[in-house]
Amino acid sequence: MEKDKDKEPELYLHKLSDELARLDAQYNDITPPSLQELERLMVDASVHRKSMERKELLLFWGISLILIS
Length: 69
Description:
Elements: H1 2-27, H2 35-68
């Protein structure tokens, strides 16, 4: 019984190592985006966020005018 308990951490460590190796193999061929691509994504996200904020503000004003009148 003691031998089984001693081998348990080794078994989990071996399984974990195998799974990490499998993950490394899957993500090995993925290249990180370039700096220009990241900057473009940031600009796109900023434009989208500002557009959504503008739409929300117009919706708020419209509903407010309807409720006030």
